[in-house]
Amino acid sequence: MLEELRITGLGVIQDTTLPLAPGMNVITGETGAGKTMVVTGLGLLFGGRADAGRVRPDAGRAVVEGRLRLSGRAAKTVHARVAEAGADPDEDGTLLLSRAVTAEGRSRAYIGGRSTPVSVLAEIGEQVLAVHGQSDQLRLLRPAEQRAALDRFAGPEHEKLLDALRETYAQWRRVEDDLADRRRNARQRNQEADLLRLGLDEITRVNPQPGEDDELKAEAQRLEHIEGLRTAAQIAYQCLVGSAESTDSSPDAASLIGTARRSLEGQGGVDRTLGDLAGRLEEAATLVSDVAAELSAYLTSIDVDPGRLQAIYERRAALRALTRKYADDVDGVIAWAERARQRLAELDTSDELLEELDRERRRLADEVADLASRVSAARREAAARFAEQVTAELAGLAMPHARIEVAVLPRPSGRGEPSVTIDGVEVGVTPDGADEVEIRLIAHPGAPALPLQRGASGGELSRVMLAIEVVFAGAGGPPTLVFDEVDAGVGGQAAVEIGRRLARLARRHQVLVVTHLPQVAAFADRHLVVAKDTGGAVTTSGVRVVEDTERARELARMLAGLPDSDLGIAHAEELLAMAARERRA
Fold first, then answer.
1. Does residue 350 carry a pLDDT above 80?
2. pTM (2 decimals)?
3. Most buried by CB count within 10 Å: which residue of 59, 202, 386, 521?
């Protein structure tokens, strides 16, 4: 649950803190006091779009901070994601979230005091929060949203089936597009393939090896200076170990080091320092011996075939011919050849390949048809249960004679989208299946079943939306639910029933409700009032918790606009007593 929400510099709110409780939290206030800013702040905190126009000019930036305490599966998922982002919960297990937006539109997000991408806040929001407002009601009027609502109700196994359909559909469309492109552009593909084959043939004849151009360049440089290299090595070798053919009586380095070492060893027993130096000369003698051996091997290897340099020149010329055409160096030529081979496979328009692709296309089309048929059957089964449960909720929302129907209809073909045959009927198909889903309302006995967008008034639509959310909440969902004036257009007994349903939701969820209805506010476990202060040069708003007498006065204001009316307060106290009895029951 969300334990606390602090908002600074957002809209009319200068700086306020909302202490939130488990159960049902109600937020009320005069029109324009800033209730919507609370929902806007929640949206920002959980990764919503940053709107610089909402930032108070005098503040320069808006900051929303929240303290989140989680348990169960949501806690495990969220804490794992937070750990991936490099953040940690607080010592008491709560999670501190923060979002800042400047007047220039720059946005920063923080978890546990550590900077993090805004997308991480959005991922956390998907796990812990669901916001429902009047815009959600309008969205529910769209057929795609009605289908999504039914799919959500159908459960995780149905979602797995849908995922399999979407994956198979994508494979089918890729094969279909590939086959059509190969047939449509066969001539251009063949021309491109011929050019690629010519290049590959040329590269294959030369057969370049990785790094070969650098190796040949280095070898050519050695061969071009071979006499200088041989002379230098020979002189160095003779200086180190002498030469059997040499008549020079000058001692070599190895002999001199040996003489020096023996001289020092003779006195090493008298002075330990000379003994240590003799040991170091022995190491020097070993190093000189190793260098002499390597020089000997070098002198042997440097005698090469006189025709080798010419062969290198010719090989480098062949490699340069390739690098002029295909890449900057030999490694690039090899990479070009590999890409060319892959592209040749893509350009293949042989009859054998076209037949193979056609067989794969038909196989995938049959698989899509089978999966779409199973999805349709699952939707029809879920539609009956969904309609029954939502209808039962409507009976408790002062719509006792209303019924909900959920029609799952075949999607007509011929709309410019692919089609498959299911049970002998050609139907259009999308990644979401071959169905059109329509939620219909029968407002009273004898009334026709009409789509929600045609058959529901504003108040009825609010109650249908709430009934659907109650049904969803019974199957789990995020731990915190936010309702932003979903009771618009409702009054009287229907308003009482909405309050009762929200209170019932609050038994298993934390519920935040922004409302104008006293009948709804009376059911709250915690009542927060947004109050506007116009005494200064700039209008500001703050939030305070109201209890007992203050709460009755707020309900009286909501009932009749007269917070100090004895009659209004009496009516408010009666409403609070009724709601308390309902909650206890």
1. no
2. 0.61
3. 521
